[in-house]
Amino acid sequence: xxxxxxxxxxxxxxVANGHTxxxxxxxxxxxxxxxxxxxxxxxxxxAGQFYAIHKERPFFNDLVKFMTSGPIVAAIxxxxxxxxxxxxxxxxxxxxxxxxxxxxxxxxxxxxxNAVHGSDSDENAAIExxxxxxxFERV
Length: 139
Ligand code: CMP
Description:
- Major role in the synthesis of nucleoside triphosphates other than ATP. The ATP gamma phosphate is transferred to the NDP beta phosphate via a ping-pong mechanism, using a phosphorylated active-site intermediate.
- It is an enzyme of class 2 (transferase).
- By secondary structure, the protein is an alpha+beta fold.
- It has one domain (about 5-139): Alpha-Beta Plaits (2-Layer Sandwich).
- It has seven helices and four strands; from the N terminus they run βααβααβααβα.
- A four-stranded antiparallel β-sheet has the order 2-3-1-4.
- Adenosine-3',5'-cyclic-monophosphate binds near residues 111, 112, 114 and 117.
């Protein structure tokens, strides 16, 4: 299993609030390189599949509604120790608990509208990346 890639989404709150550029700037300055990226949006069906692991959680329906509320930016990022370093860069899920200077501390609105997603393992980074990108995708 590769250990040098992670998957991120800039979520609808951060895109709508005009934070895409600042967030990408912070990610790149932290040493990540962007291997794939697209501005897109999630259907209810696709959001449900992406968050299937949270299906039984009380916040699942609201999460799907939020994630389909506007455009997102999906990206595959590369850096040594990518998964762990990216989770440090974004901070805790709840922005009230996110360390000063982290992306969620600076740009998130709430535990739900928390600006960015970051994969929690190498295995999920590969699954989530291939959810949005084909290895051989070219235009
Ligand atoms: P993320 O870790 O990217 O993926 C799962 C998402 O579910 C998480 O970000 C939050 O946006 C959301 N989430 C997690 N816990 C809660 C919660 N207690 N209440 C509302 N949303 C949550």
